[in-house]
Model the fold of this input.
Amino acid sequence: MRHDLMSNPVALLLGTGACLGLLTPLARLAHEAGIDPFLWAALISLVPGFALAIVAFRRGCEADMAKLMAFGVTSGIFAYVVPNAILFLAIPHIGSGLAGLMYALSPVATAVISSIFGVRPPSRAMLVAVSLGFIGAVLIVLARNTLALPSAGSWLVIALAVPVSLAIGNVYRTAKWPERATPLQIGAMSNLMSAPLLLLASMINVGQLDLAPLVHHVPLAAFQWLASLAMFSLFFRLQWIGGPTYLSQIGYVAAAVSLFIGVGLLDETYPALVWVGAALIIAGIAASAWDVLVTSKTPRR
Done:
């Protein structure tokens, strides 16, 4: 049963997206607790990275370690370091609503880049899925946030580098996946190689490595480590099986999951437009699942 789930692209997409949806409120709680966001992002990579490495390398590694480390650095920069740095700097200028749209643009950017470079380009059904999910995500953001254009329009242009960076990372991992490297090894190395860069960014931002707020919120950090470990255990398996465009839709799943968490656990209420957006996201996931499962267009690489 476990093998079936770990080979099922729909289960992997839903599981990875659900875990990602948990990380967003945890990051918000960490910010309210005074924990530097770069330090928090570094811990998301560092602690689960070590845990993944213990499992991934316990029987050795057939891949070239130097190439695997170089791959991890590049993957980490595009997937973690650049997006976190840009959003942290841009949010005070563009607001959280527009920042959320940057993540919604990631699947669109991934589809475009994968098509341009011919790296598992999306089918028509996948393009329909991405389009439905994007429209749904935009409706959710519009209904939950005020999207006033920033006075400093240059920050909006800078923020557009976030979906581009995420898309480059998605396509790069598929195109340059090291020979004979397993998904867990890729996950461990990508996280471990990005953590020092994020720690350096935290030191530059705060002036020192300030662990004091973290010490006072160990249960929060522990829950975040468990959620991120679960996500990364699935994330790179999903990349291996589904390809870059399919993988990029985890943000849509996370957006839908956060809505149901808000209603079920936090007694939040949302306008009808939000639920229209959620329905479109679900339709997009169904369309991509049909493409992956029925048409069998997903080779392992």
About this structure: DSSP finds 14 helices and no strands in the chain. The two ends are 23 Å apart (CA to CA). The longest helix spans residues 65-104.
